[in-house]
Write a structure and sequence with these properties.
The chain is mostly helical. Helix content is about 85%, strand content about 0%. The chain is built from 1 helix and no strands. The longest helix has about 80 residues, at about 1-80. The termini are far apart.
């Protein structure tokens, strides 16, 4: 009777091992997939930070472009009038 109990116990352990090994393999795959997702999340965060910096640079360039366009318009307007800042008057000394 004792051999039957020992045999049943060993059989149960063998069945448990047969079922557990594939599950442990899947857990390792899940761990690797989780690590890949974490790396991709870090890359996405870096890309988002870079995109925000580029957006700030673009806004600054747009402001500078607007300022330069205003200055250019003033310069062009000054050439049409003899009293403008950049107007050349006959007899005036050039710098």
């Amino acid at each position: 009777m004792t051999w039957i109990l020992i045999g049943a116990g060993v059989l149960g352990l063998v069945i448990l091992a047969v079922v557990a090994f594939p599950l442990l393999g899947k857990l390792a795959d899940l761990r690797r997939a989780g690590e890949r997702l974490q790396r991709r999340q870090a890359e996405a965060t870096t890309l988002q930070t870079n995109a925000e910096q580029l957006q700030q640079t673009l806004l600054g360039l747009e402001q500078r472009t607007g300022t330069m366009q205003e200055r250019l318009a003033l310069i062009k307007a000054g050439h049409g009038e003899p009293t403008g800042k950049h107007a050349w008057l006959p007899g005036a000394k050039r710098r």
